[in-house]
Request: fold
Amino acid sequence: MQSWGTRSRFDHRETWPYPTKSGVVGLLAAALGRDRAEDVSDLAALRMGVRVDKPGVLMVDYQTAQGVLTADLRGTHDVQSWRYYLADAAFLVGLEGEEGILAQVHAALRNPRWPLFLGRKGYVPSPPVYLPDGLQMLPLEEALARYPYLPALIDPGQRPPETVLYVLEGKAGRMVWDQPLGPFAQRRFGPRFVVELARGFGEVPYVSI
Reply:
C-alpha cells in the first residue's frame, strides 16, 4: 500500500497516481536521519523521474473518530474520513544530481536511520526500496529505461508490459505542487513541471530539461 498526496484537505485524503517529489524527499530525509526541522534543499534540488511498472489499484480506507474536539474548543463531534491509497503498485524512482549526495542517499537507503514509509505512516515498503545496483552513472532517462522490470525481481515469471508510463521533470508540462521549499516542519511546497510519456519498455524517453 502507498499514498502520495498533493492536495489532501480535511476529510478526504487523495493520492497521486505515482510518487510525489515531496513524498520521495521525505523518505530520503528519513533514511538519512534528518529531523523535520532540518534543511532538505540538497535533496529537493535533485531531478526526479518515475517509471510506472504497475499502476496498481485505487482503494479507499473509510475511517471514523468519535469525540473529536471542535475548532472553537467548545465541544466535540464525530468525524468521518476517506483515505485513498494505491494497492499492488510498483514504481521505479530515479534521481539525477551531484554524485556525492546520490552516494549518501544510496547508502542511507541500505541502512536507514529512521523507519521508511510510502507516503503515509503504516505503509511500509515491501520489498525494501534499496536496490544494490541503484547507483548508476547514467542520465536519468537512460537509468530508468535500462533498469529491469521491478515485479520480475520478485517473481521471475512476471513480464513487463509493452508500454510503460514515464514521469520526468522538465521545463514545461503538467504542473504539480509537490516541490519542497523548506524544512518539512514548515510545510511549504511549490510547483514543478512533469512530462508524462508512454514508451515501449526499455525505450529511452527524452524531455527538455
Notes: The CA atoms of residues 133 and 147 lie 9 Å apart. The first helix runs from residue 21 to 32. The helical segments are 21-32, 41-44, 99-110, 140-146, 150-154. The mean pLDDT is 92.
